[in-house]
## 1
Amino acid sequence: MTKTVYIKTVGCQMNVLDSEMVIADLKRHGYQVVDTPREADLLLYNTCSIREQAEEKTYSALGKLRDTKANNPDKKIGVLGCMAQKDQEVIFRRAPFVDMIVGPGQLHSLPEMISKVDAGEGRQMAVSMGRKDGKQSLVARSHETFDPLRDPAMRPTPFQAYLRIQIGCDKFCTYCVVPNTRGPEQGRAPSEIISEARILAEQGCLEITLLGQTVNSYRHRSDEGETDLAALLEQLHEIDGIRRLKFVTSYPKDMSRRLLETVRDLPKCSPYLHVPAQSGSDEVLKRMKRGYTVAEYMEMFERIEDVIPNAAVSSDFIVGFCGETDEDFQKSVALVERCRFKNSFIFQYSVRGGTKAAERLEDDVPREVKAARNHELLEVQNRVSKEHHLKMIGSTVEVLVEGPSKKSKNADPDAPAVQMTGRTHCDRIVVFDGNRRQAGQVLDVHIDEVTSNTLIGRVRQVEVVSIGL
Ligand code: 5AD
Ligand code: SF4
């Protein structure tokens, strides 16, 4: 009999990709995906630990399953991902009805764990070694990816895919759990990456986004020598069918001129870079142990402007980090004004157990101050984004159409016109009135109106030369 699985994914692109892999694996084991926990024999929660709020949401979702499990003891519940690795048995204590806890480096063991639970062997846990639990090579080996398994049906659109090129992180920014939950930085072998990209292209994928926590630090050494991200992009660029290549997230210190020149010279590479600054204050950056000063970030930023003048750069900021004064915060505001980022993801600092900041620094910025700074920085960023977008009115951009926009997801499937959404080569969101058949096409769209995060336009009927804004 076919079994059914429901999966809820929160967090970053890595988790989205992990869920895709898990589902591909489970389908091979006879599972079918359903949309609600009610219909499912197996309920999976792929979790995130980056901020407390993400964890609390998961614990509250789990709490709601207490009665479900009591009434349906045969339903199996699994907690996957970063929170599984970070909290381990704590999850069994807080939610004793959970059957399986699986860290992000152990996802390949899920089918076997399900069999054990089914066989009455009791609840199961598979997590990777902690950073200090043994020799670096052993710890690294305990964080495995199982990337070659793909299920195109689980992707948000069939034309776009994530491809992991690196796992883990060795930067140890003082606020961040990732080096603990995802383990040591490891670059995947180029041959594996290329063959996976070829399969994606054969499946009709037009855009590949390479994933890594510090993706531009990617390195793989073998007997034939060393491959870096620039060399990898050159090889991926050769694959027929792929139209766009992106990579996220970049680490400011590793943004070499050679990489930027490669992005400039390879037409499939999107002129879009996500390079989080995190703060505009040297004192805060030092406490975060980011490894650069504001002047060094600016040097890197000017290098981007110099090599790829039309590049769109986005950033992340943490507001209210330990000891952040109003003056420090105003320096983050100034950095947004100066760099005029395409967009910024802004987060309020959240203490994470096991990090250096949690051990050594005081979380001394009051909650209301964090919220107010978040609001202020977002307003400045939105103004900057809108000012740039206003300049794009009247221009024509090349859009990879993803599908109906959120607004029209539930529109009548036979309606002649629906609002469609897609992205420019620079990762700007575009909506226009069109039809569902346009999904997966690359179209020239004339921009008529804008908001701070969206360009609104109409499809050009005639071929025009697009500009890569
Ligand atoms: N609190 C708030 N934001 C955080 N981030 C990482 N750790 C924390 C934390 N403890 C943010 C950083 C990072 C993004 C993915 O999440 O800005 O770039
Ligand atoms: Fe976390 Fe810093 Fe690594 Fe990014 S570079 S994943 S913020 S430790």
## 2
Amino acid sequence: MVNKLKEITAIAEKRGFFFPTAEIYGGKAGLYTYGHLGKLMKNKFEWLWKCYFLEENFWEIEGNSILPEAVFKASGHLKNFNDPLTECKNCHFRFRADEIIEDVLDKNAEGLSVKDMDSLIKKHKLKCPKCGSQQLTKVEWFNMMFPISIGAVGGKDVAYLSPETAQNPFLSFKREFEALRKKLPFGLAMIGKVFRNEISPRQLFFRLREFTQAELQIFFDPSEIDTHTEWKKIAKYKLLLQTVKDRKGDKVKAVSCEEVNKKLKLPKLYVFYMQQIQKFYLEELGIPKDKFRFHELSSEEKAFYTKLHWDVQLNLESLGGFKEITGLHYRTDYDLEAHQKHSKKELSVYLERKKKRVLPHVIELSFGVDRNIFALLDIFFKQEKERNLFSFPSAIAPIEVGVFPLVSKDGLPEMTKEIYGELRKNHISCFYDEDGSIGRRYRRIDEIGVPFAVTVDYQTMKDKSVTIRERDSMKQKRVKISELAKHLK
Ligand code: ATP
């Protein structure tokens, strides 16, 4: 496992997926840069996400990463967006109290009070993970937002770097409701950078201090939570679930949407988005079924703003098991209500057709883009006898086609570059390489997950055909250049 993490990280850094930021100065935990391949892959993931989730009357907006303090007073983040912190009195290392409890005692510490954590630390004589001292300070809550001050007013105009994109759609809700012809439901998505001052980011690329979220806030009339126009079509679809009860024995059950609605009492609208999300992972991203599950959070574990909270977890071998990648949150009218109260601006809306006024409720899809990228690297990584490869589906592969002349002479490079230009005109992302043996060039593109290689050889000169090699099977076939783009697409 540790080896797989090392292996993937080494390839990611060497080939340009991601690497530590400011490496030449020693880097900073939780800060990573996307290299050229990582950025291409991230763009593709975000594009796929938008194409898939932005259905009728769902739109993307772009708000700010810097938001005034008033926003976070109202949203509850100033008071509640905390992690439990303790400090070693000997070496002054500061770390998360819940993590040490979880690591050493193998006990879920989410939802414990600071008092409970203090008692557990004392009772089990837990030690500083760095120097081994038992002299630890009392556990305190540490707010994870980065404060900043706006303008040259000497810290008086306080703002924060946003720890989630969600507040922007809430702040824009009233304007967009009016602009979108005053109808519910409607969705506001935002893909953007968010910032969390994680106490001790571990697991390399998995827990970051600056990362990207793709979030979708769906505003709806609360009286319609147990309806969806497409319900009949999805009722028999089986969701892969781990309820709180199923944690014992680590069970996952396949349960139809109908049963989830009737037996687990999850409302149809919420179940509909569970189904959408599962299909996105299994069908669009090609995640194997046995690596996917919805994981129910208990009332102590849920975020302070949610009434229903299930996470998507994927089984990541390099991190030793199922890890949270995405969340599906029923935020009720928590945020609109809070902003209405604090801003003293009316945020309820009048629905002309129904002749009634409502304060909409919200279901939120919250994807961490970076964790999804990492998960794709983990899940599609394969080591074979003679090669490493990422067997990414084309939809998320950073580059789709490698284009090679068999040798770099006799007019083959010129002909290959023409083909390369044609493919680019057809919006196929490709990569040209003429250095080294053809076998080595194939290995190199396998290692970055390119699904196809097109090779121009001497026969191309005679009959205007090229070979296409498919990455996973390594099988080759000949295709006419005139049909190449169509064939690849
Ligand atoms: P965790 O329990 O791992 O700290 P969270 O429950 O606080 O995560 P949410 O607030 O629900 O996470 O955020 C939604 C998504 O944002 C997560 O599912 C995850 O993909 C991503 N995310 C959250 N924190 C981080 C982080 N520090 N680094 C990278 N991605 C993150």
## 3
Amino acid sequence: MSIAIIFTNKNPEPWEAALKTHLPETVVEVYPSIKDYAAVDFVLCWKPEPNVIDKFPNLKVIQSIGAGIDRIINTQTIKEDQKVTRMVDENLSNDMFEFLLAAVLGQLKNINLYQQQQAQKIWLPTNYNSIKDFNVCILGLGTIGSFVAGKFTALGFKVKGWSVTRKHILGVESFEGEQEMSAALNGTDILINILPATIQTENILNKNRLKQLNQGAFLINVGRGEHLVEEDLLSLLDEGHLSGALLDVFKAEPLPMNHPFWVHPKIQVTPHVASITNIKSAVLTVATNYQNHLSGKPLKFEVSLKKGY
Ligand code: NDP
């Protein structure tokens, strides 16, 4: 019985150290330096290379260190006796809220516009908006989306949210399913996408949907790059239906050097940093899950492979 850490483009050392502290009796190795592949029954993953889990014949648990599991289930063949779990952590939700608050207030107060004007030494005051006048719509009222919706409502924003099933969050107007998506989008000034990437949500941020937002609306995508039809965003920005976008996630990461988003004046690019897993708190979930697995108890935050999130 042992744990393997399988990371791509992420330093595994802090995780290795944290796991060894919390599970001192357990062998923790970092792929590809694995002494005995057959001994590994639990892997900790971040963007694993395609089909890597096939190398572990006795693997039972695949633990994502992130909230999303799309980069795992789209690249691996999960066997019937294997379980996939994800990260749910208060810090992830709170850090996402803080990131989104910064983005939304920046838009309300024209901060991006003034940065561009400063680069050209232009002194040109523009009307700003206030929290009470702004309609926010959140796609995805899950662990993170519900938390963010509640916080934005408490600050005085008018908040709508959309999910598969209706939610009951104080002050938040909740919409469910395909049939109510237009009602959620209509009248929106800021659209925040925090959906998981699934077959159903792929390309959901398309011209047809984004056209339903208010004229001059702003898009924030912290879900996944697969949600956005990039050409549709560019044409809606060019024709002025959208005033701008802040994008944290992309189809290809890092964003390729020649991608038009890098230099578009109405697009702000952040390098997938909206909310980063906090090792100190997240390692407790991983350690608990490893112990639950050993003692045959249910895992925390196991995902539904059928739903894809
Ligand atoms: P959850 O699984 O808790 O929530 C997902 C939400 O999306 C649920 O409300 C679910 O509805 C809704 N949903 C799923 N499919 C559909 C659909 N077809 N139509 C309508 N609603 C749908 O996930 P989290 O809140 O923890 O995380 C969400 C995503 O945020 C992650 O998958 C990841 O992609 C992204 N993320 C990005 C980060 C970043 O730094 N950029 C950091 C962390 C997360 P219901 O509740 O009814 O099932």
